[in-house]
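QA checklist item 7 of 12: single-chain prediction sanity check.
[x] sequence parsed
[x] length recorded as 143
[x] structure emitted
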Amino acid sequence: MKYIHLIIFVLFLNSLSTNAQQPDTMPVYPGCEQTDQQMSCFKEHLLTFITENFDSSLLDKIETNKQVSMLINFVIDDNGKLSDIDIKSGYNFLNKEMNRVLQMLPVIKPAEKDGYPIPIQYELPVIFEGKLNNKKMNNDKKN
C-alpha cells in the first residue's frame, strides 16, 4: 500500500506589519468573523484550504522517505489579498504548486491599525514527507 504524508505546520513565526506598526486587529479569514478565536480559526481554515487544493500527487517526485521543508513568506495587503509571495523549498515544481494554491485563497479581511486596513507579513513553514512504497514496506514485513 502506497501512501503519501503531507505535513503542514501552520505556525506563523512572524506576523509583522510591513509598515512597522503593530496592528490593532489581525487579519480575519472568511467564516471566522464570529468567533473569539479568530487566529486559531484563520490557521485552521488556511491549513484546510492548502491541504484540499494542493496537488499531493506531485509528492511522488520526491525521493522515498525524504523530508522537504518549504518556507513561505507572504503579505496580506490592505485589500485582503495575498501579495509578495516568496516560496523556498529546493523543488521548483512544489514552489509553483504552492503559489498556485495561495493565489486561489479567498479575500481575507485585512489587519487594521487605528481603523484603517494595513498590510501584514507572514512566514509559514511547511514540511512535506516523501512517499513510502510497497517494496520497502514489504521488505520490512519479511525481516
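[x] summary fact logged: The mean pLDDT is 78.
[ ] second reviewer sign-off
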